[in-house]
Amino acid sequence: MKKSALFGSVTALALAATGAMAAEGDTLNEVKARGVMNCGVNTGLVGFAAPDANGNWTGFDVALCKAVAAAVLGDATKVKYVPTTGQTRFTALSSGEIDMLARNSTWTFQRDTDLKLDFVGVNYYDGQGFMVRKDLGVSSAKELEGATICIQTGTTTELNLADYFKANGMSYQPVNIDSNAEGEQQYMAAACDAYTTDASGLAATRAAFADPENHIILPEIISKEPLGPAVRHGDNNWGDIVRWTLNALVAAEEYGVTSANIDELAKSSQNPEVQRLLGTTDELGKMLGLDAEWAKRAIKVSGNYGEIFAATIGEQTPIGLARGLNAQWTQGGLLYAPPFR
Amino acid sequence: MVDYPGAASPPFRLSMLIYDRRYRSLTIQAVVFILVMLLASWLIDNTLKNLAIMGKTLSFDFLFRRAGYDIPQQLIPYNSDDTHLRAATVGLLNTLQVSILGCIAATVVGVIVGVLRLSQNWLIARLMTIYVEVFRNIPLLLWILVILAIFTEVMPPPNAYRGESPRASMIMFDLVAPTNRYTAVPAIGLSNPPGTIAIGREGISWALIAFVVVLAGAWLGHRALRKSAKRVQDATGIRPVTWWKVLAMYLVPVLFLTWYFGLHLIPPVLRGFNFADGTNLDNALVVLWLALTLYTGAFIAEIVRGGILAVSKGQTEAAYALGLRPRRTMSLVVLPQALRVIVPPLISQYLNLTKNSSLAIAVGYMDLRGTLGGTTLNQTGREMECMVLMMGVYLLLSLIISGGMNVFNSRVKLRER
Fold first, then answer.
1. pTM of this structure
2. What's the pLDDT at B3?
3. What is each CA distance from A165 to A131, A159, A199, B69, B70, in whole angstroms?
């Protein structure tokens, strides 16, 4: 009896140890061997990552997971979506439970260095805002003195909120909540006057309300929140793959490559940049450890960056976000993909 | 082997460690001990190595860095400029606060329900059975969430108290306003404040100290009075009337201090988004407290019932024969004996309650798990350190509680002569 218990615990420890070891090493080959890529996403934020009525994950962040899976495995459906909360996301990544994190996470110095993550780019330039009910009669965040504010714990928004109110010499009462769903519930019951998170998240949350017209998002954006996909520090090849998949989506929009015309362009385009992007010449994919058509497959899944944006969170969707900072650099935005050569 | 006094013991051989009964158990113990230690050191070594591979070395420096986040419930002054260590302390105090309040309330609920479950009154006994079974058999987290939902959805928001014809109105002479965030109650104000004594960053009013001293004095006086009354009763058989002396002992100095310091109530006023001036009792604490109390109370009720049933029926019958009424029989004869059976399992329930309080994050109550194991862990990314610290603190807390209760147990347990 004693012996079997001892053996049991030894086995458990050994398993735990191998689990920890798996965090290290060659993510690309691991994903290929597994045949499935584990992608950490939000537990449910309409427009960014949420399961639809049939249980299929859709959204802006999900599209990136699909693009990477298509580039690496050749099949956009070979993704296992791991819902993560603000608290569990980085641990899930560093422990190897997920291969990449696409969960509207802010790129910060400390996360990039001390947490041993690598943010490989920015897929959405965001900023923290406040949402209030219209009948509260508030038109500016400066009028929120003494307000009760719902905030998700374990996010950068928590720190921004403290800094903003301190800088403006105002007081507030935080209500700490664990997930967006809980925040919605508390806000709807008026247990807090304002709900704060990234402006995109607010728009997504509001879109899910029964009465979105009764809520306004205040004009103040109190922080810079560059949201982007993250991978573990140390596996540079895998980081390159995710980084350049994102860049491929952005570049595709710049060069007018869409899911509709991609096959035709691959054959007929005379633009050398497009040829290199789609693997007609040069075979850039080999340098990533992939095949020549990696970017073509990634773009084909749900289109280029602009198409993904329009389909998931753009102005035609209930979330209704304008491109704003997230327009191409040629349109006055910040999106700027480095050259494919 | 012949065993008689003075027999020369055979010389020690190594094989005796296994074949000699006197040494065998020692050998086994030593081997198991070494194996366990090896396992533990391998585990720690492995963890440290893996952390090193990930580039994370064990370090507690983060505790002294700026925390940067705010905590809604604080028993000691705290702001976002303080360190993570202070944030963790605030969390620990919150854990202690809800645990102590919970243990006291759960004991009260448990004893009452446990006694009532044995009541001759069919309806009361059945009602208590329903309470016990319903609370004992549904997970605590669900109760916490249900009670939170009731508080958030049923209570009016502070806004409802505003305007010409408010949807909600304050209760108890316009002094108390229950809302879905907190219950606003009057604060106590002094028109003649005697100044404060500074302990750390916290100022404690001399008035509070004066009240505590006076009440302690009154309690000592009360005890002395009871003793002398007992002496008189033992000597003469007549118990002197003491109730008005006791009442005066407590009331007169308290009333004097109230008048001297100019104690008065400051009613809460709706200002801006929230009630101000008064004291706001946070719903997070109340919800958590209520849930922990009702849940643990159900378990304690069963322990109390078991303890009472363990006292032989002859004791009750003997008490009745002596002419004691049922209530006095319960409090003077049965409960003191039942206590001996009740206390040891009660310790476990106190420990459970304390540990269960770590579910606080579900209602946004920032306990140790919410600060050190929540926001601090997340902002600094020091999972290992935070977890180790948190486990250490909970372990220490539990050991202190069970140590204290064991002392109490040794005082109430049957002294065998």
1. 0.79
2. 56
3. 16, 10, 18, 11, 11
